Amino acid sequence: MRSIGYGDLLVGVGIMLVLEGLLFTALPNWMRSAMKSALSSPDNILRAVGLVSAVVGLLLIWLVRH
């Protein structure tokens, strides 16, 4: 079983930044609207969305690695 190293972490962060950059480039008005929506959302909703996102991300990584 291979452990996830710092190189893999940096690749993941790099991919995230590329995708975020592409969204800001292609859809700036939508991203602005999404940020305004996040600012007005209650903390518990943001926490729930963040937790679900993290769990889905971990499951995706686990599925790809196994």
Global structural class: mainly alpha
Assembly annotation: single chain
Q: What is the count of distinct domains?
A: 1
Number of helices: 3
List the uncertain runs.
none
Percent in strands: under 5%
H/E element order: HHH
Indicate the overall shape: flat
Write the layout of secondary structure elements.
Layout: H1 6-26, H2 28-40, H3 43-65
Helix pairs in contact: 1-2
Keyword list:
single chain, 66 residues, mainly alpha, flat, transmembrane, transmembrane helix, DUF2065 domain-containing protein
Textual characterization of the structure:
The longest helix is centred in the C-terminal third of the chain and has 23 residues, at 43-65. It is built from three helices and no strands. The protein has one domain (6-65). 86% of the residues lie in helices and 0% in strands. α1 (6-26) packs across α2 (28-40). The chain is an all-alpha fold and 66 residues long. It has helices at 6-26, 28-40, 43-65. This is DUF2065 domain-containing protein. Keywords: Membrane, Transmembrane, Transmembrane helix. Pfam families: DUF2065. InterPro entries: DUF2065 (IPR019201).
Please summarize what this structure is:
This protein has helices at about 5-25, 30-40, 45-65.
